[in-house]
Amino acid sequence: MKSLAIEREFGSGGREIGMKVARMAGIPYYDSALMVKAAEAQGISVGMLEEYDEKRSGSFLYDIAAYTSYANGNRKNSVYELFSGMEKTIRKLELEGPAVFIGRCSTEILKERSNVLRVYIYSSDISRRIERTVKTEGVSETEAKRLLDKKDKQRRNYFRFWTQKEWGDRANYDMELNTSFLSAEECARILLSAMG
Q: Is 13 exposed, middle or buried (0-12, 13-18, 19+ CB in 10 A)?
């Protein structure tokens, strides 16, 4: 059986689908917990990681400052140590056996592994994304719209910063699933079948 690496639009149901696949296949599921594992491995505090994610809310200037620091030889920049730690953690966990990985550029980190299915989950129906976000996050419709924009921007910029690729570009994935037409259950069954 292959591992599964998922990138997803906020509100598309990608996390739910990943959890269903892991449960149905009886394999581990990894998402933001990777941040903690990477932090511990690199000796970086979780508080610093939370602060980094807040600063990385799509700030192009912050990206430039961080990249310039790295390009000028500051290889000890904790942001880069964090990403390096995440890369190592993801690769190590994947070597331990099939698993589901959500976000954090796992589709790109594991792209050389022939036993990994790389998937992008999206929804072409913005109203369904808003409705799902209202339910899962417990927010108003207005706040849900704001969250969709903010989270997608963060994910897009994070992916571009670390991979120099576009987050939603189909060339980065083996498969794309549109949850406007497929239920989470249908997506999970499709992915399980493709994982073999």
A: buried
Cβ burial 100-110 (10 Å sphere, 16+ → b, else e):
bbbbbbbbbbb
Contact between 191 and 4 (Cβ < 8 Å): yes
Determine contact, residues 188/24, Cβ cutoff 8 Å: yes
| 122: enclosing H helix or E strand | strand 116-122
One-letter amino acid identity for 141? E
3-state SS, 128-165, equals HHHHHHHHHHCCCHHHHHHHHHHHHHHHHHHHHHHHCC
Report the mean per-residue pLDDT for the chain. 85
Backbone angles phi, psi at 91, to 5 degrees: -65, -40
Dihedral angle over CA of 99, 56, 128, 187, nearest 10: -10
Amino acid at 92: K
Q: Beta partners for 73?
A: none
What is the Cα–Cα distance from 187 to 117, expressed in whole angstroms? 13
Q: Which amino acid is at 190?
A: I
What's the rounded Cα separation, in Å, for the pair 159 and 161? Answer: 6
pLDDT digit string (tens) for 63-97?
555 555 555 555 455 667 777 777 888 898 899 99
